[in-house]
Amino acid sequence: VTVQRAHNLPRRRTVPGSVAAPHPLECIVEARFDNQMAETPVAKGNEPAWNSRLRLKFEAPSNNWGPSNLLKVAESLHLTVFDTKVWESGSSEGRIRKVEKRWLGSVQFPFTTLYSSAAKGRIDGVFALDAPPHMIGYTNSAPERKGKDIAASLPRRPSLQVCVSLDPPLAQPGSGDDGLDGNRLPGQAALDSLVRTWIADCSRPLHCRSRTYEALGRSLHRDWVLACRFMTPQPPPQPAYNSSLPLEKQMLQLARFVGLIPFLDDFQLEGGGDEDVDPDSLDVWCTSNEFIDIMAGDWEEHAALLCNFFNHICPQTGQGQLKSYLVVGRAIPEGNT
Q1: Which residues pair with 216 in a beta bridge?
Q2: Angle at 29 between CA 24 and CA 35, to 5 degrees
Q3: Helix residue spans in the chain (DSSP H)
Q4: How distant is the alpha carbon of residue 238 from its chain centre?
Q5: How far is CA 54 from CA 25, 35, 78, 116, 123, in A?
Q6: Does the pTM of the predicted model rise above 0.70?
Q7: How far is it, in rounded angstroms, from Cα 57 to Cα 11?
Q8: How far apart are CA 104 and CA 130, in angstroms?
Q9: How far apart are CA 161 and CA 3, in angstroms?
Q10: What's the farthest any 2 CA atoms get from each other in the chain?
Q11: Euclidean distance between CA atoms 81 and 75, whole angstroms
Q12: Is the dihedral of CA 103, 101, 47, 39 positive or negative?
């Protein structure tokens, strides 16, 4: 873990009745993973720079380094920013020194995100910290920024710039093809051609050439279907929402209902075991009915069900012009989303 610097950290508040300026922050970053801990040296200021490298050891459960076992690791890497305050006092028994850590914010990276990103070598970027809006003894006020736009006057979120990598890289699950070979679309040459044309059209703009476009999804029955077939207006269960409320509140109630359904990674539908992971099992699409029957699913099941609910209730409330879409992507540190 290479901790580079932090941005937009709060400032210590001036002590009431004091004319002296508050002391600058004295920050450290603490990294924790699987009962291990390492921390950076102290750096001062509300935009401290450490450029410090921390190393944490990872051991595979049961010493099994196969992809199927690594995908089951539930631990996360936690990075926490602290402001340190040193208290010293003297007594007849000697001098007492106490170091107090004050939490300023944190960010976590699930191991599965680190593992799936290992093919690219690392995760590198500036990540927003999970921090409270107000902290006793600190102020979020920043120096006045020049600019006529509204964004220039908005508070900026505390963030941490880090680079995380696995050294050496771990074995990755086998990667499947693009889902357009004859085995996946048997006897559907016309559909195969249309899908290829669609992907080529989407990838034609210069800024889209590095993006991955998914046209097909693998169902629970192990066949390949167009991803858009999983999308259809679907009436929600009546107890899940109050149809007499305004549309926005109905949507919030449905979002909460879908959010209560447990999350389950696709590879766990294979039944577990120590065998290597079937690449196709890493991305299985369930229909909304299958998702509700299983009462668990991953990101695409949750998103598709919520989208189907929204597309049903909008016309019912006279808002037929509103359309909901499912956008597939990948986020850091969340992973697939």
Answers
A1: 226
A2: 150
A3: 67-70, 111-116, 189-203, 247-259, 288-294, 299-316
A4: 31
A5: 21, 15, 12, 21, 15
A6: no
A7: 34
A8: 9
A9: 7
A10: 90
A11: 19
A12: negative
